[in-house]
Amino acid sequence: MDILIESQYLPSVAYFTLLVHSEQVWIEAHESFEKQTYRNRCEILGANNIQRLSVPLYLANSGLPIQKMRIDHRQKWVNNHWRSIQSAYGKAPFFDYYSDYIHQELFKPSETIFELNQRLLTLCLKMLGLQNKLNFTEKYDLTPAKDIFDYRSVIHPKKETEQLAWFRPETYYQVFGKDFVPNMSILDLLFCMGPDSLVVLKKSGVF
Known about the structure:
Layout: E1 2-6, H1 13-20, E2 24-28, E3 41-46, E4 49-54, H2 77-89, H3 95-107, H4 113-128, E5 133-136, E6 148-150, H5 186-193, H6 197-203
Parallel strand pairs: 1-2, 1-6, 2-5
Antiparallel strand pairs: 3-4
Helix pairs in contact: 2-3, 3-4
């Protein structure tokens, strides 16, 4: 299937489950930025349960197009995010295998959140061994073409994972906690499961 989905920061397992089960992926490049979504935040699993990492932006309330949403580098968010990632996954089985690549992309200068998100998405796809063709919308359409499934804003912090009828999260080893916590950032899966991450994603989708 072909899907349309928004740009997200280090997206969740559910996001990549959609990508694994898709032939072509369209990234929404012309929407107005929406606050309090995964467009500039992600969730990781640390010693004190779920930790939310947010990328600070200039004029986040302005409704500017996402491609023009500039990152506020006055705040030391990159260092804070990396320390949190190290703390959460430093002892994960595959942290040393992937961490240098993630570190390099995070610390590479990025002017906009859209640019940062796409670089990280491309890197994560490569680490997963996925070869999805990524396309970018040329304009904003409220309703996409009939052969494209619209998943924009379906994966949302205010929506429970159980609401995603197509997502049946496969459990896997996690560093912290006795109970499995589904739908963390793809970092959680990669650092914990390494090359087996793709198997988990394939088993997590019901289409």
